[in-house]
Write a structure and sequence with these properties.
The protein is an alpha/beta fold. The chain is built from 12 helices and 20 strands. The mean pLDDT is about 95. The structure holds inosinic acid.
């Protein structure tokens, strides 16, 4: 390992949870560095299915779990998730929450809903309504509340009430629902007391572990194309989902990073609004959705499905510095007689292999496809690259070549054992 960053290279939902779980067998510490409970990482162990939103997936293997400074954390959601996983025999004492992580307050969730409701058709982002954007806005505006405040209940209450009053005034002016501040505080107080012992200076924790040469996995959420700077703005999330985000979001020097894993599906999905050049908004897309069970782990929304887009994935691998790929859900393509790969875009009659920065261009472009024969047989029992049908091997090699990275891991089903190194 020793310091590995794992990120999604598409629009999220690449199957990171499963790959993290597999890699965590060798990790002593797993660190989340951005996002919040907009994420939903699914891990299946035997007949048990776990969906983790804030807790690093390392919890299922007993690794030390760090929720870094780059996250926005809903204290009530975190408490509930911890209590839930405790009932499933996981040891939550391995969790540390950064003093510097910002807190998602009830008014952030209301503000998320207010903004999304007021966006006109075509401008909606389709957020998860977890308050992510408003919490990061407050962080940048320097009016956020950090986890540090959980250590001093009186100061926390005063800060919360002060901000809540300001927000209620905004909601009133917008003719929107008002918060019952006392009732919200009562819920927050319970969560604050519960989380108090877990609040730590995680920058020190992480750097001490690095110094000791421990195997550490940095667990990205969402995907590169949802990055606030590099994604399909404004249809993005509000954090740096790319590998660079791990350094700022955990207090890690780039000097210490040894490798970057990029997780991508063998096809493409997107949940929420925004451009999606290879989307199959038809029967073929519906077949992919059903075969891949493509419904959001956090919101349950149906995911939009389409062919593999090598242009956007290559760009994402570039900015993430991906050296190894983990390609997931290959088996979902088992029934396809032929497969299309988008190798370039045509914009206003001009062919390009580069990702445009303007979301408007991404909506009007025509994808240029290369077609490959499918394998039309079951791949789920493969345990080595050479077990895969020949056409599947060719397909994987082609997409890896197009995105300019090595294949490190292949996944052919939801179970731990349906994953192998290449
Ligand atoms: P937000 O992060 O809730 O503000 O949502 C912004 C955009 O990112 C929306 O299109 C969401 O659907 C998308 N998004 C946020 N989290 C995830 C995720 O974990 N997987 C996939 N899409 C996500």
């Amino acid at each position: 390992m020793p310091v590995t960053i794992l990120v999604g290279v598409q629009w999220g939902d690449e199957g990171k949870g499963k790959i993290i779980d597999v890699l965590t067998k060798d990790a002593e510490m797993v660190v989340r560095f951005q996002g919040g409970n907009n994420a939903g990482h699914t891990v299946e162990i035997g007949d048990e299915k776990y969906v983790l939103h804030l807790i690093p997936s390392g919890i299922l293997r007993g690794a030390d779990c760090v929720i870094g400074n780059g996250l926005v954390v809903d204290p009530i959601a975190l408490m509930e998730e911890m209590k839930d996983i405790e009932t499933r025999k996981a040891d939550v004492s391995v969790i540390q929450l950064s003093t510097k992580a910002h807190l998602i307050m009830p008014y952030h969730k209301l503000m998320d809903a207010l903004k999304e409701n007021r966006r006109s058709e075509g401008k909606k982002i389709g957020t998860t309504k977890r308050g992510i954007g408003p919490a990061y806005s407050d962080k940048a505006a320097r009016s956020g509340i950090r986890a540090l405040e959980l250590l001093d209940m009186k100061a926390f209450e005063a800060l919360f009430r002060e901000q809540a009053e300001i927000y209620n005034q905004i909601f009133k002016n917008a003719d929107f629902e008002l918060m019952d501040i006392d009732a919200e505080w009562a819920k927050l107080e319970v969560a604050a007391k519960y989380l108090n012992p877990f609040v730590k200076d995680t920058v020190l924790t992480v750097n001490k572990a690095v110094k000791k040469g421990k195997n550490i996995l940095f667990e990205g959420a969402q995907g590169g194309l949802l990055d606030i700077d590099h994604g399909t703005y404004p249809f993005v999330t509000s954090s740096n989902t790319t590998s660079g985000g791990a350094c700022a979001g955990a207090g890690l020097s780039p000097r210490h990073v040894d490798s970057v894993y990029g997780v991508m599906k063998a096809y493409t999905t997107r949940v929420g609004e925004g451009p999606f050049p290879t989307e199959l908004a038809n029967e073929a897309g519906e077949r992919l959705r059903q075969a891949g069970h493509e419904f959001g782990a956090t919101t349950g929304r149906p995911r939009r499905c389409g062919w593999f887009d090598a242009v956007s994935s290559r760009y994402s691998c570039l900015i993430n510095g991906v050296d190894n790929l983990a390609i997931t859900k290959l088996d979902v393509l088992d029934d396809q007689p032929e497969l299309k790969i988008c190798v370039a875009y045509e914009i206003d009659g001009v062919r390009t292999e580069d990702m445009p920065c303007d979301s408007k261009a991404l909506v009007k472009l025509t994808p240029i496809y290369e077609t490959m024969p499918g394998w039309e047989c079951d791949s789920t029992s493969a345990r080595h690259f050479n077990d895969l049908p020949e056409n599947a091997q060719k397909y994987l090699k082609r997409i890896a070549e197009l995105v300019d990275a090595n294949i490190g891991i292949i996944s052919v089903g939801p179970k731990r054992e349906q994953t192998f190194n290449v």
